Amino acid sequence: MSINVLVADDSAYLRKKIGDILKGHELINLLEFAKNGEEAVDFVEKYSPDVLVLDLVMPKMNGLEAFKLIMNKHPTPTVILSAISPKNLDSSIQALLMGAFDYIIKPGGIGAKDLPMFKEELLAKVLLASQSQIKKIFRKGDEPIKKAMTIRQEIIDEIFNFGQYLNRLQPVQETEKDPETQIIDIGKTTVVPTKETQQFVKKEQGEFTKSENLSKATSVTSSSLLKRSTKYEKKKPIFVPNLTPVRGAILASNIVVIGASVGGPRTITTILKELPRDLCVPILIVQHLSSHFTEAFVDNLKIECNMRVKVATNGEILQAGMCYIAPGAKHMEVGVENKKPIIKIYKGTPVNFCMPSIDVLFFSAARIFRNRTLGIILTGMGADGVEGLGAIQKVGGRTISESEETCILFAMPKFAAEKGFADLVLPNHAIDHEIIKFV
Asked: Per the residue annotation, which of 130, 261, 290, 357 is the catalytic one?
């Protein structure tokens, strides 16, 4: 199986570096280079690539304008390249919400020191993007999703002047290190990616023979990328799954907990925008997203949704009608204080390579709200949230997995459904009705 990739970047130096990386992988076929946004649009139409690697700041037509045209005419899994300071990454999150598969922050320079990590990140995200169903999902005639895209783009058109905004952006001067991710070994209750996401790992360096398929390459490349970083502090709390009931808590309502990874921002928006402002439950959401983008994600939800939306803070009492988004790089769980359900935010150890982790939220909700919990697992790679969804089902709560029909990446929901943990398997545009019924 060959993955056809198109690269759009105005830097000849970067085109060569990126090209050498991509051509060095036996599963990837480098189609062509585009030197500006106009060429990117033309080449996508000409070649219909499996994946587009797209720079943001380019001459003639900038990357976001090119991306908008491409997604309207020829939806393509797109990995955005950005040399923008993390403090100014509103444009990348908006691109992500419009349908970009993922983003890569360019290092200040791709020299000998930075190249290995950049290479791993680029290959991991291109391989994952090739499994995206975005072409199928954004096909013509799909009215629910087509309508959601149109509304989203209308809003973005109103709040963004792409060219002027991009001209103000500053290149990255330094790169910031993300917290280390690791497997959590806690005996019989080990919380790690399930065997489905690890069974393909045969060689430590992620090298494959031609007979080994894309899923193997993707799994190992992603795992090796996620494990690399500095040493973690030993005192950070380790998550231990616990379903022991919390007695004495006064529960004024049911609760809805949602978990998502790759493709989640678009899917979460699709669901929340259909819910009424006076919904009489709190909704807690873990979206795997860089901490740089959390505020921009919440701001976009505030524009598009009727419900009140905020970044969760430690110690606040749960309120009906409020949607809480987990902050970046910290776990969010439900706790009890003075008999009232509260939100607990803390920087612990990554679970399933993730912080925030969906499992952490789901287990805590199941423990406190028991059968008054609705758990929903959406699009994404890996297995975070799968066991947590099973925990919610075990205590009598309701569970939903997003169906393959609308998943950008059908992995987390697939594993949950295959294990029998999902009471319902639904396309994302049908989930809001089930939330209202549960409430």
From this structure: 261
What are the structural domains of the chain? Answer: 3-168 (3.40.50.2300), 255-438 (3.40.50.180)
In this prediction, residue 378 carries a pLDDT of 97
Q: In the beta sheet, which residues pair with residue 34?
A: 8
Give me the torsion for CA of 369, 248, 327, 352, rounded to 10°: -60
Residue type, 133: Q
Q: Are 406 and 145 in contact (CB under 8 A)?
A: yes
Of the candidates 9, 130, 288, 403, the residue annotated as catalytic is 288
Q: Within 13 Å and on the Cβ side, how many CA atoms surround 402?
A: 30
408, 134 in Cβ contact below 8 A?
yes
Q: Which two tokens stand for residue 424?
A: 């319902």
Q: Are 301 and 328 in contact (CB under 8 A)?
A: no
291 and 327 Cβ atoms separated by less than 8 Å: yes
pLDDT digits (tens, 9 = 90+) for 140-198: 444 444 444 444 444 334 333 333 434 444 444 433 343 333 322 222 333 333 333 33
First to last CA, the chain: 46
> Which pLDDT score, from 0 to 100, does residue 162 have?
37
Question: Comparing C-alpha atoms, which of 355, 367, 179, 161 is closest to residue 261?
Answer: 355
Q: What pLDDT is recorded for position 371?
A: 97
Q: Which of 91, 384, 401, 429 is catalytic?
A: 384
Separation in Å, CA 205 to CA 19, 69, 217, 223: 21, 38, 10, 10
Residue 100: what pLDDT? 79
Chain position carrying tokens 């200040």: 108
The answer to whether residue 384 is catalytic is yes
In angstroms, rounded to a whole number, what is the distance separating the alpha carbons of residues 13 and 211?
A: 33
292 a catalytic residue? no
The list of the chain residues with pLDDT below 70 reads: 84-98, 108-114, 138-235
Residue 104: both structure tokens together: 């890569």
Work out whether strand 340-346 and strand 331-337 pair parallel, antiparallel, or are unpaired: antiparallel
Place of tokens 């103000």: 168
* Burial annotation 199-213 (CB, 10 A radius, 16+ → b, else e): ebeeeeebebeeebe
